[in-house]
Amino acid sequence: MSKLSDLPNIGPVVERQLHDVGIDTEEQLRAIGAKEAWLRIKAIDPSACPNRLYGMEGAIRGIKKTMLPSDVLSDLKNFAREKK
């Protein structure tokens, strides 16, 4: 089993937070999705910024967050704004 930190954009802090909210595998992250994963992290760390959301979406897609399509990034920004 690979570590979540082997995915793009997922460092040790986010990996630990994902584990803390019950997401231990890449498959679980994909099934739950970046939005739900971010909401779970935000529940335990209110300082979790939207960049974490973008990073997890990129991780699910296997790309750097800076490579997210503009429509996806726009959707994520709107989602994060609504959930503040």
Write the layout of secondary structure elements.
Blueprint: H1 12-20, H2 26-32, H3 34-44, H4 50-61, H5 70-82
Helix pairs in contact: 3-4
Describe the protein in words.
By secondary structure, the chain is mainly α. The protein has one domain (4-82): 5' to 3' exonuclease, C-terminal subdomain (DNA polymerase, domain 1, Orthogonal Bundle), CATH 1.10.150. It is 62% helix and 0% strand. It is built from five helices and no strands. The chain has helices spanning 12-20, 26-32, 34-44, 50-61, 70-82. Helix 3 packs antiparallel against helix 4. It is globular, with a radius of gyration of 12 Å. It starts with 11 loop residues before the first helix and ends with a helix. The mean pLDDT is 96.
Question: N-to-C SSE series?
Answer: HHHHH
Tell me the name of the CATH homologous superfamily: 5' to 3' exonuclease, C-terminal subdomain
Specify the number of helices: 5
Helical residues, percent: 55-70%
| Tally of discrete structural domains | 1
Segments where pLDDT lies below 50 for 5+ residues?
Answer: none
Structural class: mainly alpha
**What is the overall silhouette?**
globular
Number of strands: 0
Percentage of residues in strands:
under 5%
What are the defining features of this structure?
84 residues; mainly alpha; DNA polymerase, domain 1; 62% helix; 0% strand
